[in-house]
Amino acid sequence: MSGQLELEGLTRRFGTVTALDHLSFTVPSGQVIGFLGPNGAGKTTTMRAVFGLTDLDAGVVTWNGAPIGDAQRRRFGYMPEERGLYPGMLVGEQVEYLARLHGMSPHDGYREAASWLERLGLADRVRSKVETLSHGNQQRVQLAAALAHHPEMLLLDEPLAGLDPAGIDAISEVLVEQARAGCCVLLSSHQLDQVEDLCESVTIIDHGRLVVSGRVDDLATSGPRRLVVRVDGDRDAQWARNLPGVTISEVGGGEARLVLDAGVDSDAVLRAATLAGRLTEFVFARRRLSEVFREALG
Amino acid sequence: MKPTLLVIAVIAAVTLRIWLWRRRRRTPAARDHTNWGPVHGGVGLVAAREMRERFRSRIFLVGTAIILAVVAAAIVIPTLNSGKTTPERVGVVGNLSAGARSAVESSATSNATTVHFRTVATSTQAATDLRAGLLDLVVIDGRTLEVNTAISPSDSSTNASFIQAVAQNLSYVVAFQDAHLTAAQVHTLEISKALPVASLQPAKPSRASHVNSVALTGVILIFVMLSQYNTWILIGVMEEKSSRVIEVLLSALRPIQLLSGKVAGIGLVAFAQATLIVVFALSLSKGVGSNLFHGTAPLVLASTIVWLVVGYAFYCWVYAAAGSMAERQDQVQTLAFPLSLPMIFGYIVALTGASSGAPSELVKVLAYLPPTAPFAMPVLVGFSAVTWWEFAASVVFSLVCTIGVAQLAARIYRRAILRTGRRVKIREVVSRRVA
What we know:
The complex is a heterodimer.
Chain A: E1 4-14, E2 17-28, E3 32-36, H1 43-50, E4 58-63, E5 66-67, H2 70-73, E6 76-79, H3 91-101, H4 106-119, H5 135-147, E7 153-157, H6 165-180, E8 184-188, H7 192-198, E9 201-206, E10 209-215, H8 216-221, E11 225-231, E12 246-252, E13 255-260, H9 266-276, E14 279-284, H10 289-297
Parallel strand pairs in A: 3-8, 3-9, 6-7, 7-8
Antiparallel strand pairs in A: 1-2, 1-4, 4-5, 9-10, 11-13, 11-14, 12-13
Helix pairs in contact in A: 3-4, 3-5
Chain B: H1 2-26, H2 42-56, H3 58-83, E1 88-93, H4 98-110, E2 115-119, H5 123-132, E3 137-140, E4 144-146, H6 158-178, H7 183-190, H8 209-242, H9 245-250, H10 255-288, H11 297-324, H12 329-356, H13 361-366, H14 373-382, H15 388-416, H16 426-430
Helix pairs in contact in B: 2-10, 3-10, 4-6, 8-10, 8-11, 8-12, 8-14, 10-11, 11-12, 11-14, 11-15, 12-14
């Protein structure tokens, strides 16, 4: 089970609004890919375009080089942003039903539904109605529905939203396992810390256009040098605000993340920090994904 | 013996099949996980889900029970009244000839009742018994009749009809006696039959009141069921859209597959419910000896089922398209009202026609228009005011129009079902270019 999703020149306009603007990128199998962008960037429209849920003004979506038809689409798993389940239907029957709509036999659909619900900790809720479940558990049911037919590709729109740490860990584990098994996994999220931990690569879009795409490790080590500095008694990093060639990237929890221009001497920064107060931390750091995101969007 | 063996064989086969099926569900199979064959069964799966959910719903079970109870009451109550006729108590003062006695008895028979004679010694005693309510009628010397309260000309009760019949029949007996006819002559007169009346044209159809009742019931049944099942479709489509499950469904199915499965599933539930009601009504009617389903009534019932199916086929697409344009309950109300107007109009006109004893010209016209034909045509059948080919022509015309309506509805559904946010306007989804 391996393949590659290719999006080529996707363009979609809603009246005067351009949701996708000649968007092109590739989603290879075997890794979890983060799909990032601010609200309204076009992430959901892109995912819907893959499933033919929105008409395109231009562009084509292919799987292993071939246009995606009905039969191929049934081999994909989809988890929409606003969860899509029948509120009054029993959990087990719902997952089995959706698996069968994707082409599974009655026996396999039943078995896989039971297996995934057990794996996601919902074995005792198989006979419950979806509407009686908590948000987190409904999220797990939705994931089970996306996985039960053993998809070749998973498209997950905000799968981690609203989950507690245990829920995030459970879903992350499953997604990594699927990717290792050769599945193509693309997920969108605004929780950049989780995406950084989970994804090997990210694609960032804005206003329907591709902004950045690459491996998380490469993006983290690229760009100017970064320092993490903690000075007691100066939680807002006032000491660094007027340093030439130094930009404050983030300030939080008494810690300042600084970006150094090419010619800046780090020793000069160290001296300035020492003069400002008791220095408790001074280390070179990788670029965080949140920094990549902010810098990419300007 | 053969039928018994056959029944045992069928039971054994069904049991074995269920056991194998349950075993398959429990035992992990060694087959491949994936069965990527084309989902020809997608429509069937959607229909099966709709049927399962509807049959399970409390509203369906309670609704069906209420309809069956109403039908049972309509059939059984009239038979209870007819079966409990009390005998007419006739007091006899003086002599009552055999011919006169026979005339009284035949008067009772013709009014579907019986008679109980009691000899009373004097007319004074008879008057006392009449006042006390111990007697219904007193015959004095076979020539004079007495009752406690005068019979009103408008009184149509069994008792009044019986007394009027006795008065008439006894008058003949008295007349025969006064004419001093011989016994043989009296007998000849008694067994005389009415002369046959020749006619230039065949008789016009009977308009017995029970036929109108069945047509009336059929129209009400069609209206109630069409309203119920169309609302199910409207709400069902709207809920799929508002719960966003539609996105998951359409990632595996085409819109037309989903829509077809939904209308087929709910339609089969409607047909099953209607068939259950009709079979129940016919069985109960036969069981209790009701005369409700005699004459053209079975034909009216059959046409009711036909028009329920044809009417559902016509309206279901319209309501599905409307449901795809709504996302909230209040939007559904706004959309449902104008859609229900043709149904309400057809229903009221048909109901009035069935109650009036003769179908109006308007009913005859509406019987050929697809939105109103499901209500008007069964009324024409009830009055035998339509030929088989006129009936068939109306069905065919409705089905042809249904094809056009279905195509337009599928187009609206496909364009509107994934558009969220505000209510979709009709002109936005029927235009050639979609924003």
